[in-house]
Design a protein that fits this description.
about 375 residues, alpha/beta, Aspartate Aminotransferase, domain 2, Aspartate Aminotransferase, domain 1, seven-stranded mixed β-sheet, three-stranded antiparallel β-sheet, globular, binds pyridoxal-5'-phosphate, transferase, PyrdxlP-dep_Trfase, aminotransferase
Length: about 375
């Protein structure tokens, strides 16, 4: 039995091949490899796609987060609130800037940041009086939106910067509008495994604020001013390559079809698996970009058994995330010891099944059949 791929970029390449090659040839012909015309074209299309006023492409999702926080001058003495159940990049960036990540628990059903836990954590930081509550990073985990209405309310009441880490979820929508305008700024990633993945690293920032966009453009090119050798601030080398932009333009042509295919696969999994395990709970009034389809097993032993049964049937699976960030060696010293029980529990029994647009109906049926009863 041929093994099923967790992500099948070869199949996708065959599907988009003609358009892709034409776009790459155009770049090879004009040779503007840095900030060439495809970069501006991509930024315009991404902004239009989600209705944001501005899009600034950058070198990765992590750099998008970093540039957004640098623009707010987040640094030593600042507390940045973020979920403990996310990828390390979310927490790494505030630390790199000298700020302190404060880990927040997540909701046991949606896996998104828990606003009750968030309020408690902000209150604790205020009481301790050592750090200034500076920013909240809402993560749209696995393709679904974070609770943006509540997050905006908290950020406004506390006068904090609100950043959307949308690395996994570009293409998803909430209340009928695409993510990209829920926070003061939105960071997206084009890492190959993300819903809108490129063929390497890349990312972008979306915002409705032209002043922020101008800062982002300066920061991604060494803090430059109106002219190239005017250095206004410390920035970074954080641009997206023209070749990568050309690839992403070709991928955008099929992006909505791919999102529809992911949704159809998720529905087939829901229907086929709901009698055997806990299927993902949909966030209300939203559509998912289905970066990840994660189910919950009763406990760690059941998860191991399921993974083994799947492996025997040629079905790959993955664990996002096997450890919450506050238990990782790199962050343990940052954490005040508060228990974050939901994040700790999810890590022991969550399991992701393959979901990518080139999975065939037969393969979807094979995945469902391979899950033990
Ligand atoms: C992938 C990811 C990032 C980082 O994106 P890169 O493009 O890989 O730097 C940040 N946050 C989350 C939640 C991610 O999943």
């Amino acid at each position: 039995m041929t093994p099923i791929a967790f992500l099948d970029l070869k199949a996708q390449q065959a599907r988009i091949g003609t358009g892709l090659r034409a776009r790459l040839e155009a770049v090879l012909a004009h040779c503007q490899f840095v900030l060439g015309p495809e970069v501006a074209a991509l930024e315009q299309r991404l902004a239009e796609y989600c209705g944001a006023a501005e899009c600034v492409s950058v070198s990765s999702g992590t750099d998008a987060l970093q540039i957004a926080m640098m623009a707010e001058r987040i640094g030593p003495g600042d507390a940045v609130f973020l979920p403990a159940f996310t990828y390390t990049a979310t927490a790494e960036v505030p630390l790199l800037l000298g700020a302190t990540p404060v880990f927040v628990d997540v909701d046991p059903r949606s896996f998104q940041i828990d606003c009750v836990s968030l309020r408690h954590r902000i209150e604790a930081v205020r009481r301790a009086g050592r750090l200034r509550p500076a920013a909240i990073v809402g993560v749209d985990l696995f393709g679904q939106p974070a609770p943006w209405v509540e997050l905006r309310g908290i950020a406004q009441a506390e006068a904090m910067f609100l950043l959307d880490d949308c690395a996994q979820s570009f293409g998803a929508s909430l209340d009928g509008r695409k993510l990209g305008r829920e926070a003061d700024a939105t960071a997206i990633s084009f890492f190959p495994s993300k819903p809108l993945g490129g063929y390497g690293d890349g990312g972008a920032l979306l915002t409705d604020d032209p002043a922020r966009a101008k800062l982002y453009r300066s920061l991604r090119t060494h803090g430059e001013g109106e002219t190239r050798y005017e250095v206004l601030r410390i920035g970074m080398n954080g641009r997206l390559d023209t070749l990568q932009a050309a690839i992403l333009l070709a991928k955008l042509d099929v992006f909505d079809e791919e999102l529809a295919r992911r949704e159809a696969i998720a529905q087939a999994y829901d229907a086929g698996l709901a009698d055997r395990l806990a299927i993902p709970v949909r966030v209300r009034d939203s559509s998912s970009a289905w970066a990840v389809y994660s189910v919950l097993l009763p406990d760690a032993a059941a998860r191991t058994a399921t993974q083994e049964a799947l492996r025997a049937a040629g079905v790959p699976s993955a664990i996002y995330y096997p450890r919450p960030l506050h238990h990782q060696p790199a962050y343990r010293d940052q954490h005040d010891g508060t228990a974050l029980p939901v994040s700790e529990d999810l890590a022991t029994r969550i399991l992701a099944l393959p979901i990518h647009p080139d999975l065939t109906d037969d393969e979807v049926a094979r995945v469902i059949a391979a899950v033990p009863g």
